[in-house]
Amino acid sequence: MSSIITNSKVEIDAAGLPYRELNQQIRSAVSIGAKHITLRNVAGQRYIGTNLYEAADRKALDELEIEILGTPGNDLGMFLDGPSITVYGNVMDGTGNTMNAGRIVVHGRAGDITGFSARGGEIFIRDDAGYRTGIHMKEFGSMRPIVVIGGTTQDFLGEYMAGGLIIILGLTLKPGELHYFSHVGTGMHGGAILVRGGLADYQLGNGVGVVNLEEKDRDSLLKYVELYGTYFGVDVAQVNVDQFVKLAPLSKRPYKQLYAY
Amino acid sequence: MNAPRNNSRNAIQAPQRKASDFRIRSNRLAEFSVERDYDKCIKCEVCIRQCSFDVHYYEEEEDLIKHRSEDCVGCQRCAVLCPTDALTIRPNPAQYRAHGSWSSEHVKDINLQAETGGVVLTGAGNDKPMPVYWDKLLINASQVTNPSIDPLREPMELRTFLGAKPDGVEIENGKLVTSMPPQVQIETPILFSAISYGAISYNVQKALAEAAVELGTLFNTGEGGLHPDFYKYRDHAIVQVASGRFGVHPDYLNAARIVEIKIGQGAKPGIGGHLAGEKVSESVSITRMIPAGTDAISPAPQHDIYSIEDLRMLVYAIKEATNYRVPVSVKIAAVHNAAAIASGIVRAGADVIAIDGFRGGTGAAPKVIRDNVGLPIEFALASVDKRLRDEGIRNRVTLIAGGGIRSAGDVVKAIALGADAVYIGTAALIAVGCTLCQKCYSGKCNWGIATQDPYLAKRVNPDIARKRLVNLVKGWSHEIKEMLGGMGINSIESLRGSRSQLRGIGLTTEELNVLGVAPAGN
Lengths: 261, 522
Ligand code: SF4
Ligand code: SF4
What we know:
The structure holds two protein chains of two kinds.
Chain A: E1 3-6, E2 9-13, H1 19-31, E3 36-43, H2 58-63, E4 65-71, E5 81-88, E6 101-106, E7 122-125, E8 146-149, E9 162-168, E10 190-196, E11 208-211, H3 215-232, E12 244-249, E13 259-260
Parallel strand pairs in A: 2-3, 3-4, 4-5, 5-6, 6-7, 7-8, 8-9, 9-10
Antiparallel strand pairs in A: 1-2, 10-12, 11-12
Chain B: E1 32-36, H1 46-50, E2 56-59, E3 64-67, H2 77-81, E4 87-91, H3 104-116, E5 119-122, E6 137-139, E7 160-162, E8 171-172, E9 175-176, E10 184-186, E11 190-192, H4 202-215, E12 219-220, E13 237-241, H5 250-254, E14 258-262, E15 273-275, H6 282-288, E16 296-298, H7 308-321, E17 328-333, H8 338-347, E18 352-356, E19 365-366, H9 367-370, H10 377-390, E20 398-402, H11 408-416, E21 421-424, H12 426-432, H13 454-457, H14 462-487, E22 502-504, H15 509-515, E23 518-519
Parallel strand pairs in B: 11-21, 12-13, 13-14, 14-17, 17-18, 18-20, 20-21, 22-23
Antiparallel strand pairs in B: 1-4, 2-3, 5-19, 6-22, 7-10, 8-9, 15-16
Helix pairs in contact in B: 4-14, 8-10, 11-14
């Protein structure tokens, strides 16, 4: 096993390891008490963080930190339930897919369907993200997923969104440039998207509208923009709560009128 | 006689209408005619309390129980429960002028859409008189040369193992050395198909789960999650991962014997679903993990699956999440190119493929889809089985056929056509009381099945329902044994894909070719 263990810190060299083996090594490390795992030379291995379920108890998983150097493959942190993952590099598709709890921080950009169907947890992407970001996110009870994107995303942002919060900072846009996405929030029936940066009417999907920020949105912005600055060491002084617009569903039942009774 | 009024209807007030309440609200002809024999009616008001469609009402001025036929859905609940047999519910004898092309159904649906501008919804399975190929297949029996076997005297094996089988096995010193993919043992090749809590009531899902435990088979949560109370049935659960990902989390995946990725459903191939907010009760909300009262929207595709490669990604995500302990099933609707799709699904790493024919049931589907899209399960099953054999990969999956399995005869025919096991959904609900009124989408099921209304849902006693389900599957299992014995074989294994045990009757050469069976008499 190509890992080095020193007082609950573990390093694994992922070079050449198939994902199944890499994930098995991560599980073994967690099961012997690792609290901080560094994965080096990660190159496309999928499902990192997906199954740590039986390796440790709830509390240990909540405290677990995984640091990834390189480019993890698709479905990073799929079904993630507690741990924090930090990636120094870009991520591919399906980051945080159907995630329940935990945190994923990406020092780079993300591929498609980031945060797809997430029910809880936090995802921070420093730069841009691909298509269908935050699609069908939901929330339940105290579980509320948060996706923060530093730049912009491609189309269908927040499609079918049923809950949670997406914050788009627009930091990668040039002055006066519009966001890249259109059809934002098509079929959206819950949650909110807070957008900073150029946005035209035609970019909004069916069933979503611009509404005023509420106090709780301002609180969320203050909190998550500051976290974004801290995680990525970026100066966020230029980001002001008043620069955001809030996109919210016009109806909780977008398809109510669709059927003949 | 003056019976007490409104005494036992807890949540809902029995409607009291005056004759003047009548209004013409539609120019649709009533589908059913309610006939009340006033000589027999004792005004007990059972029908008023039983009918969730508010067909019956007490008319004070005349002191009579009356009814509005136009609201009747023909579920027969009132007729069955009327203590004096005073009610007859029958198709409305008044019909539009007969027309070979424009059926009454067409005329009524056009009117409904002209009034509402909406999509016509329906429930249960396709009710059109499409050919049922089970009925055109005949099963063989042995005479003289290969003696038949009496299952009452000799052991007869129905035990079935679900999961991928290796290409070959190696045995050393009497021990199996080949590492086997995960297998799930069931005692009869009949499983309860996916029906979500939300589509059906708590009591009915509970009954299905408990019947599965008693029978040594599996029930399927559908895409609505697993209620916390039902985790105790985990050894008999198939859990679904569908486009809405409702209630999907690591505990849920690991609570299952099989995880099933739902791509399609026979009653509505190619489309998603919307569970209306009214049906998302507090308890359904806990199970689906969405707030109570919100619509549960299942998009048409799973948005992380746009290709076979993507499907492989989800299959392996689930295998990772369950530590490769659990077979992963992929359920598809029977569609024209099912065989090629199934071949892709095997290569995507699925251990089980469930194929759902176009007569499969549903809690809600657009009628135009239910009645026009898809393929009979018989064709889909036969072509998938053949394709996988031709490609030499049939052993790598278990095939489960569903969507219109009505009897033990259908089960035997399905297995001879290539299925390893069958899913039953509609048959199970009929056992619990469903009368196929097709109003499941309304949430007002008078039989307490497809409803979240506590007043209606308590009509199903889960213990009685469990017993009825167990009886049904036991009865069918015994019939299967009788048929196997009749063919001179003593194990369901020997019947699998044995199309030589079938003959087609009244089928064209093309149909016989697709089914891979010889004509009767041949
Ligand atoms: S809907 Fe059912 S209970 Fe109501 S009148 Fe018709 S048959 Fe009777
Ligand atoms: S489940 Fe209920 S509503 Fe649906 S067809 Fe059966 S009796 Fe009718």
